[in-house]
Amino acid sequence: MIKTDQATYRQCELLGQLLPQREILPSDSQYFKVKDFYWSAQQAAVSPQCFVQPGSAEDVSTIIKVAERAECPFAVKSGGHAAFAGASNIQDGITIDLQLLNEITVSEDRTTTRIGPGNRWVDVYSRLDAKNLMVVGGRVAEIGVGGLMLGGGISFFSARRGWALDGVRNYEVVVASGEILDVNLESYPDLYWALRGGGNNFGVVTRFDLETFPQPGMWGGMAYHSMDHNVTLNDAFFNFADAAHEDPDAQAYLAFCWLKDYESYVIMSEVTYARAVEYPEVLKPFTDVPAMSTTVRLRNMTDLALEMNATNPNGMRQVWMTGTFRMDREMLQACVDIFVEELQPVKYLNGIVPAAIVQLIGKDTIANFGRNGGNCLGIEPGEGPLVNLNLAFLWVDAADDEVVERVIRRVLERCEAKGRELGVWHRYIYQNYAGKHQDVFAGYGEENLRRLREISKKYDPEQVFQRLQPGYYKL
């Protein structure tokens, strides 16, 4: 039986004895500072019985053993960048805050970097940029390492190297028994496969060992365009699926946004090139489109990630939903049209910024999904190129939650219906952009889901991470 609030509080006190100065109770001055340090307002509104900040994998093992033996519900937080309440925080439970697990160590041969899940990507990039090195990771500075790595990790280097999860050589992970395992293709190939996209269902990862490569500089940035260029930019994005295959250093995506203060729609194009080359030919279909403003320039990854961070403000109410479809010109335009048509009920809400974002999951990216034994996402090479549709709305007032969530669901439902009508809708649901109600692992395919459940039962026979850690997406 899962413990009551008072029983959980007693386990918090026990953890304070076992791990002195690692536990934070509501009576402690730090509590509200830690509680507020979430990206979305919904997550920050959740109040655990305590936070525990482990300083080592051994500390994490102690916490998991206590929670398991006492049947205490818990959550695990890396950067806290999920949108919905309870994703990485838990009401009246124990929240394991990994921020002290912040190792960044480059190997002597400069081919591997050991990275703790408590880091933000800006911490990683600033350290590696100084050495002209890089790893495949997130694009927004303040996103945490842990959640992004376990769900996917779309990157500026994805066409050449896959997603962030494809670059993990080894995981240090605490499993349900409290045992600390080094998990790689040779040691535990089944668990290694499952961790590459399986989310938080298999244990607490306390270190990622990532492939590291030379990266002396890059080019890119954002440009903002009038909605008058909608068709031109959608055509550029459609054609980019083939162009990116010819030049995998190039990345581009489009975000269609409503700006209430300007009473207008705008299109943001984000273009990057993984070499220090200005205005490469492959990206000119985007950069030649007239822009109201642009930030494209020669820069490094730290600079790019900090710029992207400005589009992801903390403390707002947030909701994200996502879907996937095969690249199709008519479908691209339909998504934009549906987004515009459905926004009327929310256009003038306090602080509202709704966006519909399309990102390429190209043939080269998908080919990299097969590296090192493959990942568990369930996307096969012949299915590309695909497009990720990310619907992302932010606003201020909790009183508007219902109408915002109704509108964003309606946009996704209509886009899915159109995709099915055109025969281009794909089952895959990208975990890191999914809404709370979305069935992420069903989107991985029946066989992969069956295999993930088998691996979960092998390493977690009592299903600790399914029962006691309710947050995020379960198998």
From TrEMBL:
Keywords: FAD, Flavoprotein, Oxidoreductase. Residues 44-215 form the FAD-binding PCMH-type domain. It comes from Neohortaea acidophila. It comes from the Eukaryota. This is FAD-binding PCMH-type domain-containing protein. The keyword Oxidoreductase applies. One of its GO terms (molecular function) is oxidoreductase activity. The keyword Flavoprotein applies. Belongs to the oxygen-dependent FAD-linked oxidoreductase family.
